[in-house]
Amino acid sequence: MQGFQSETAQIGKNTRLGIFSIILADVIIGDDCQIGHNVVIHPGSRIGDGVRIDDNSIIGKEPLRSPRSIFQEAKQFEPAVIGDNCLIGAHVTIYTGSRLGKSNLVADLATIREDVEIGDYNIIGRNVTIENFTKIGNRNKLETNAYITAYSVLGNYCFIAPCVATSNDNYMGRDPERFQHFKGVTIKDGGRIGVNATILPGKTIEKNGTAAAGSLVTKDIQSGKTVRGVPARISGEVPQAQLFENNLDKRK
Description:
The chain is mainly β and about 250 residues long. About 0% of the residues lie in helices and about 30% in strands. It is built from no helices and 33 strands. It is globular. The model has no long low-confidence stretch (mean pLDDT about 95).
């Protein structure tokens, strides 16, 4: 093998390491994993069984801190954890302190920041960014180029279309008052956001609430309601056939 493997790293049975892969101290990789070429796995990271990590991805990266960052406190992060049977694409960066459950797909170029918790059976599309202090439940789908801001919460069976933008700062980086009101978005079970919609800070999409494509969401979306427009206004009810509880994945 051309690469580096720490003497304290533990590699499971039938796990294959690619050329120039770097496995650092105290990393644990389970059985039947496939680690691509040029992958870097930082100290202490935990990789479950049956995980595939494609070329040039980085697991357990430490965050950078600009002198102007609002996150200045020194913090010792827990190791990154990737659950069994996850598929991690190429050029993905998963920061230290993040935890992924089982059977998630994280597509090429995605970034998952520190202090992010992700459940099971999620699809995280190409070039999706999930910022820090975010919690995501199970069986969600986040499509290409979606941006999930820090301090957000997503429930289960949510759908986030391509190029959705969320935000957490009503003060746009000015006025110390902003530090008292920092809040991302909350999307409850079955919430859906259409392509290129924008969700303003602190807004909640209640169960089965839906924002149509291109909407600017400036108010909370009530359960089972559809909103559309700039600014978004209620345009109707979500049809019964579209409710998430009537479309549960029975395969698992």
